[in-house]
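User: Structure please.
Assistant: Input sequence and predicted structure:
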Amino acid sequence: MSNEYDVVVLGGGTGGYVAAIRASQLGMKVAVVEKGKLGGTCLHRGCIPSKALLRSAEVFHTLKNGEQFGVVTGEVGINFARMQERKQSIVDQLHKGVQHLMKQGKIDVYEGTGRIMGPSIFSPQAGAVTVEYAGGESEILVPKFVLIATGSRPRTLPGLTIDKERIITSDEALQLQELPKSVLIVGGGVIGIEWASLFNDLGVEVEVVEFADRILPLEDEEISKEMARLLKKRKIKVHTGARVLPETLVHTENGVSIKADQNGKDMEFTADKILVSVGRQANIEDIGINNVDARIENGVIQVNSMFQTGESHIYAIGDVIGGLQLAHVASHEGITAIEHMAGLVPEPIDYTMIAKCTYSRPEVANVGLTETEAKNKGHKVKTGKFNFRAIGKALVYGEHDGFVKLVVDEETNDLLGVHMIGPHVTDLIAEGALARVLDATPWEIAHTVHPHPTLSEIMGEAALAVEGKAIHS
């Protein structure tokens, strides 16, 4: 049996299901093949569940420090099982919402493993998709277009086997039944720092080992430095320029022990668990990618600006193509690919316009170029920086660490980048992203009247600071 479609989407994660909805809006007959649950990593093993737990940790931290607000609560404790239940209820609610959207858009969902076929009796060109079900049955889907959106999984370190008990990834961390007493986090990127913040707020002893010379190595250097300072203030031990030595791993009675090399100096760590957080790996295995003309480099599928592979009717988006491995990026890549399939003329995505966020305490967010990147690209740079400590609403919140920094081209006055660390900056960054899209200048940001008292005032002050005219500095 075969079913014909305009487009078959391989993978029902954020990028895949958003693309399917856009295709449905454009009148296309659409199918989504998903071997797990609709919503993919972001909904079930990433963005949503981790942020739900981070919010619980934030509330616990606030309650423990209630006296500074004049609120006396008595002894405050943790019901970790209840935190996990709340997390799961949020995930379940959103999952039902995605399922509803599929029905609303008349999108056929196949719950099985999809593989792309080469030319066959079903289709003279590559791209027919076989769907294999758990019971051993299968069927063939014959589309005009295929969109690969199979996402990624946590990357591991050679020699450091994930046993899902003592050595875990973020996937297993989200399913913990009880909190460990201590955790060694290998990797100080976005995911590693979020988990370090979460565990620390819940009373877990945390150490972070990062191979690069600074944590959050893709952030502006001043942001990384400030985060390291604030983590140290929270008694989170951070070791940079350190390479973990998997061959030294020893299982102890209560946990694990492992060594690291820090510029020739031996370091030894012991912990209940090791959380490996060294990036993510594209899911390109066992999807039939070898049956089509698709080039693989550095473990990801190569595509053009419209996300076409070597086969013009086969597209790929999201984590499988590398780049910015973020849910909102995958969604917009999916929309662009579908519109191109439909004969529209979408604009190529400018990745310097996309905001990136870290949901630790404090939060981190950025859009555009760092100061170093701007200089390396030949820009003559000027910057404006303003601290949350001078913002009334930040003092009201009781969260006044951090700052906002604008990176500006000195000759053209173009806004090149916005970098934030502090309270609620994952929401505030949207103004910076809009400013980049509209090609706003610091003058225009500064002359936008920001309501008082709000955290958003810091954007106006940072813009004024570019010319040394900040009011409250």
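The chain has a mean pLDDT of 96.
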